[in-house]
Automatic annotation (TrEMBL):
GO-annotated cellular components: cytoplasm
Taxonomic lineage: Bacteria, Pseudomonadati, Bacteroidota, Flavobacteriia, Flavobacteriales
Binding site for ATP: G109, S110, N111, G112, K113, T114, T115
Alphabetical list of PANTHER family matching this protein: UDP-N-ACETYLMURAMOYLALANINE--D-GLUTAMATE LIGASE
Native source species: Winogradskyella flava
Function (record text): Cell wall formation. Catalyzes the addition of glutamate to the nucleotide precursor UDP-N-acetylmuramoyl-L-alanine (UMA).
GO molecular function: ATP binding; UDP-N-acetylmuramoylalanine-D-glutamate ligase activity
Every Mur ligase C-terminal domain range: 307-420
Keywords of this entry: ATP-binding, Cell cycle, Cell division, Cell shape, Cell wall biogenesis/degradation, Cytoplasm, Ligase, Nucleotide-binding, Peptidoglycan synthesis
Protein name: UDP-N-acetylmuramoylalanine--D-glutamate ligase
Pathway the protein contributes to: Cell wall biogenesis; peptidoglycan biosynthesis
Length: 443
């Protein structure tokens, strides 16, 4: 019996444990932190051996294969030992994909992954049997075991792509590439780019690669590598013969001489970046033979993603917008770009080596006040202190929202778009977004 050891007892770890056990592996789960009660209960009920708050080396190094949670960096001593012992280390998407014949649509990119994945799922689910997994929702491995969908839309991070060998999506989407998570890639941007491009490395000429043709990083990389799959770029600026482009408020998609034209006047998602997300998702839907009418209607009734430019409430004619999911500068760039009124901007958190220069034009043009919400706000004061009349710092979400309420006038926006990770004052970006919404509702 082959031994499967799983590092990390969260959603992907426990899902992989269940699938591994069902496929005849001897399974052991090990987590350095405490495993949440809901996951412990699943492991106990399924008689899967586990440990938490420790890693027992002898039990781990006896593995034939290790599935490690994407949150664990390769730099960790234990991971180095596993690799030195010649034990194969895989990610959940690699392990689960072996046990399904479903059509896989995999989506990666620095920004727009979640919106594009959720929107693609929304478009496909009208006419096909399709699961949504990866970095989002229920574990992919668990769904392969329990639901066995014919299609999956997978939101895939670079960390998950680092540990693939044979993972081969029928359709791969790369939304964009901007510097992010460089702390995991030896602060070398090219290592991070290479990681994202692993999404196409096992594709053949029967597969498809959908990508942003306006993204210089992607275009340059494509000039220097050979990929087997059929390219279907999308663009806001160029006319694309095979793929999708945007002109006169319409999206035009052409695949094998089959063209569909979609007006965008009634799309619920706002901002240019969401036109791109809509082009990517609609291209997948067109590829998988979803009817034109269905695509159009689905784009018009899609509600968007929580914590992503989410309109919370309007109070005294001031619109409060939750964009807590903007954990890097590029995401905040899109948020500020889409603001159409004077904006009170709540920003800050754990800085990942951010360069705020690209935000300067928008801050000068649209932002009337800045509220810094982080433990260390010095860099924000240096970057933006001279651009706005009001710049204030606080450590509390409730206080940030109260300050915003005082500073904002009728017709303004109050935007939470942190451009930083959330771990200094909050559990995660969801916690940060929920605290913002609660504070707004309590005004």
């Amino acid at each position: 019996m082959k031994r499967l050891v799983i590092l990390g007892g969260g959603e992907s770890g426990v899902g992989t444990a269940l699938l591994g056990k069902a496929r005849g592996y001897d399974v052991f789960v090990s987590d350095k932190s405490e495993i949440k009660k809901k996951y412990k209960d699943v492991l106990l009920n399924n008689e899967i051996e586990f440990e938490d708050r420790q890693h027992t080396e002898s039990k781990i190094l006896s593995a034939d294969i290790v599935m490690k949670s994407p949150g664990i960096p390769d730099k960790v001593a234990l991971v180095k030992q596993i690799r030195e012992a010649g034990i194969k280390v895989v990610s959940e998407i690699e392990f689960a994909s072996i046990y399904t014949d479903a059509t896989l649509v995999a989506i990666t990119g620095s920004n727009g992954k979640t919106t594009t994945a959720t929107l693609t799922h929304h478009l496909l689910t009208q006419e096909l049997d399709v699961g949504l997994a990866g970095n989002i929702g229920d574990s992919f491995a668990k769904q392969v075991l329990e639901e066995n969908h014919n299609n999956y839309v997978l939101e895939v991070s670079s960390f998950q792509l680092d540990d693939i060998y044979e993972f081969q999506p029928k359709v791969a989407i790369l939304t964009n590439i901007t510097p992010d998570h460089l702390d995991r890639y030896d602060y070398k941007f090219e290592n991070y780019i290479a990681s994202k491009f692993r999404i196409v490395e096992n594709q053949t000429e029967d597969d498809y690669f959908i990508y942003d043709a306006d993204d210089e990083v992607i275009s340059e990389w494509l000039e220097n590598i050979q990929i087997q799959s059929k390219k279907l770029p999308f663009s806001l600026n160029k006319i694309i013969e095979e793929g999708a482009y945007y002109k006169d408020n319409t999206i035009i998609i052409t695949i094998d001489n089959n063209q569909i034209i979609m007006p965008t006047d009634n799309i619920t998602l706002e901002g240019k970046h969401n036109i791109k997300n809509a082009m990517a998702a609609s291209t997948v839907a067109h590829l998988l033979k979803i009817r034109k009418q269905t695509i159009r209607e689905s784009l018009e009734n899609f509600q968007g993603v929580e914590h992503r430019l989410e309109h919370v409430l309007k109070i005294n004619k001031v619109q409060y917008i939750n964009d807590s999911k903007a954990t890097n500068v590029n995401a905040t760039y899109f948020a500020l770009e889409s603001m159409d009124a004077p904006t009170v901007w709540i920003v800050g958190g754990v800085d990942k080596g951010n360069d705020y220069k690209e935000l300067f034009p928008f801050v000068n043009e649209k932002v009337k006040a800045i509220i810094c919400l982080g433990v260390d706000n010095e860099k924000l004061f240096k970057a933006f202190g001279n651009m706005v009349d009001v710049i204030i710092e606080t450590q509390y979400m409730s206080e940030a929202v109260k300050i915003a309420y005082k500073v904002a006038d009728a017709g303004d926006n109050v935007l939470l778009s942190p451009a930083c990770a959330s771990f200094d004052l909050f559990e995660n970006y969801e916690d940060r977004g929920r605290q913002f919404k609660n504070a707004v509702r309590n005004l």
